[in-house]
Amino acid sequence: MLREDLEALLSPNDPPDLRIKRLVNVLCGVDRPASIRTWMRGGAANALLTRLGRRELDLDHAAFDALPRSTAIEHLRSLLVAHGMLPDRGNVDLARFDLWLDQRLRDLTARPRIVAALEPFARWHHARRLHDDASRIRNLNYATRAAKQEITEAGRLLAWLDVTHDVALADAEERHIDEYLSAGPSTRKSARNFINWNRTIGATKLRSGRRRDAISTPLATDTERVQNLSHLLGETDAPLIPRVVGLLMLLYGTPIGRLVQLRRDAVTEVPDGMRIDLGGTQPALVPGPISAVVFEMITTVAATRTAAVDAGWLFPGRRVGRHIHPDSVRNQLRSLGVSVLAGRNATLADLTHQLHPAVLADILGYTNQTLTKHALRGGLAFASYTARPREPRGSSGLRP
């Protein structure tokens, strides 16, 4: 039935197209064909498959990039990449950043004075650095989002100079920058790096204006953190993946962007319980109540996998071969009442009151400087869950 529906939409034999025939076989070959049937009945997916069947759309990245972004397109793209029908463009966050930057500059084509100042900063400083250092950047999702913010704020500064004072950056004065930074929201401070970079290349003599420090750092109380942990442990109706990510974040203070990139082999079963490798020199022991939820998630995800390709992610996403997107997890945690940044800051502040920053750095993969900063913000120590030794749970996907 599924094959008949797909062939009716994709017309692999009219005219004959080997790639379309293979696409039909790939879609029919997943572990849960019902998931594909549900997906293809959606309006966006149905329209996409219809265009492919009419040969109005090529099976390549460029054709997909030219379409408005949608979940249906990205799901199909991931499936094609996972089965070798499209080349892997590497890190998804980096590919999205490149597309975003190209579109951002195209949108400014009618304002050449802004593009002339913004494009070198965007391409030479940010895009080149992200590509050159991709293998060394621990969290590319965070890095690309930070780069987008700096580029966006730089463009807003240039637009403000253009509209308000009719000057380009090269002709701007210190008073203009002070006025801009002091008159608007604190997000404007992200333009400082743009000003500093232009000064280093000799494009301006401007300073980056008076520094505006954050008024406060979000920090949950001990009670709020315990309540969030208890809520995530007990909220059995909520999706398992965001629950587990939230529990690990509140237990170890690891950023969500790093957690979602963990692979299943980061979790191990040892005689004294479960351990998880968070990027330090030694794995961290997972307390019993939380390890039970982690174990449940791993076995549940394995049982409900819908694609024939297993990329080994601890937190797989809906798109084949990709981990879950950190923004998706953040949004789900917020809907569960968890304040992500405040909770993580509270966790790190508390942990640094229990262990020396150097010891924590070995476990959590942070620098001593970062953990020392959190220690200075800390409040009362947190009475953590006691990890009880227990029997290993067998071969259920966890390595011994």
Describe the model.
This protein has 400 residues and is an all-alpha fold. It has 19 helices and three strands. It has helices at residues 2-10, 18-28, 33-40, 43-53, 61-65, 71-82, 92-107, 112-132, 140-165, 174-183, 192-200, 222-234, 240-252, 256-259, 288-303, 326-335, 340-354, 357-364, 368-377; strands at residues 267-270, 273-276, 284-286. The chain has a three-stranded antiparallel sheet. It is flat. The chain starts with a helix and ends in a 23-residue tail after the last helix.
Structural class: mainly alpha
User: How would you characterize the largest beta sheet?
Assistant: 3 strands, antiparallel
**Coarse shape:** flat
- Beta-strand percentage? under 5%
Please give the alpha-carbon distance between the first and last residues. 42 Å
Number of helices: 19
What is the helix fraction of residues, given as a range? 55-70%
Question: What tags apply to this protein structure?
Answer:
400 residues; mainly alpha; 3 strands; flat
What is the strand and helix layout of this fold?
Layout: H1 2-10, H2 18-28, H3 33-40, H4 43-53, H5 61-65, H6 71-82, H7 92-107, H8 112-132, H9 140-165, H10 174-183, H11 192-200, H12 222-234, H13 240-252, H14 256-259, E1 267-270, E2 273-276, E3 284-286, H15 288-303, H16 326-335, H17 340-354, H18 357-364, H19 368-377
Antiparallel strand pairs: 1-2, 2-3
Task: Give me a quick take on this structure.
With 400 residues, the chain is mostly helical. It has 19 helices and 3 strands.
